[in-house]
Amino acid sequence: GDSVTQMEGPVTLSEEAFLTINCTYTATGYPSLFWYVQYPGEGLQLLLKATKADDKGSNKGFEATYRKETTSFHLEKGSVQVSDSAVYFCALMGAQKLVFGQGTRLTINP
Amino acid sequence: GAVVSQHPSRVICKSGTSVKIECRSLDFQATTMFWYRQFPKKSLMLMATSNEGSKATYEQGVEKDKFLINHASLTLSTLTVTSAHPEDSSFYICSVRGLETQYFGPGTRLLVL
Question: What pLDDT, on the 0 to 100 scale, is given for residue A109?
Answer without folding.
Answer: 96
